[in-house]
Amino acid sequence: MKALVIGAGQGRRLLPLTEVEPKALLPVGRQSLLEWQVDALVNCGVDEIVFLAGFNLAAVERSLTRCAERWPQAAFRPVYNPFYAVADNLATCWMARQEMEGDFLLLNSDTLFSQPVLETLLASPAAAVSLAVDHKDRYDDDDMKVELDGKRLLDIGKTLPAERVHGESIGMLYFRGEGPARFVAALEAAMQDAQALRQWYLSVVASLASELEIQAVTISGHDWCEIDYPVDLKAARQMVASWQPDADPVLKSARSS
Fold it and tell me: What is the pTM of this model?
């Protein structure tokens, strides 16, 4: 199984912490955010990890080399987006479209998650695209909100009106069957739009929702957080500190939320 980790941007909202290091390489407890992700990915059977890089490629390459030494059962490589400073993550995904053959996971590099989150997504019923979602009482402007019909995704975006919001995407998707080819075709079509460089890849997922059944997989009750601001990094460090001190390094268990 292959995982693509989107991490081309600098993470400017975390400056000065990200003045040199990409966000994914920031320490969260005893290891970096990326290493927490790799822990869970490898333990769930992922043997190819492709990092979609941009800012400070050399630092990413050094980190991937260390990961390869620590997890020799998996292959690690970067795909570089030289336009990361002027393009959003839709273009970053398009740059990696040649990696999207066969089933694969796609996740944001700033999502910290306990292993049960990934296990829940991987164990979901077969679907072309499966999207991990969480539910809460309130959603803020920065949440990637989802509109659902049962378990089927109808729409996704940060500006969905409150009456249509049924959850939020945590930034983790699983493509199977016809899903990879349909996603690549949609990326190709989207990149022909002059506005593509300023769009998120989830806008492509939203465009597919009307013609392809996209499954929402609830991961509520399992630990995860998105790291965008210094306060998020503090919360992430508190979260990993709350995990059972005797837990296996590959996150075989985590404390309940």
Answer: 0.90
